[in-house]
Write a structure and sequence with these properties.
Elements: H1 2-34, H2 43-73
């Protein structure tokens, strides 16, 4: 039972590391999308694109937290 908990926590750490490795790709793609000439006419779209890195970071941390929580809880 303890081995499964340790493996779950290790998997959660791996999820965070992979998320951090992929973060520059997300930042680069949102920068490319924001610099598109046609998007300047839509300020709401620019605001949503600016939120994508934040949502990505919250999603990665939420996923890792859920994995660690359920691993420690034992389900």
């Amino acid at each position: 039972m303890q081995v499964q908990r340790v493996m779950g926590v290790i998997f959660a750490v791996i999820v965070v590391i992979v998320g951090l490795v992929m973060m520059p790709l997300v930042l680069d793609q949102t920068s490319t999308a924001r610099s598109n000439a046609y998007i300047a006419n839509f300020p709401g779209t620019q605001a949503i694109i600016d939120l994508i890195p934040l949502l990505y970071a919250v999603g990665v941390l939420g996923l890792a937290g859920a994995v660690a929580f359920f691993a420690i809880r034992g389900q």
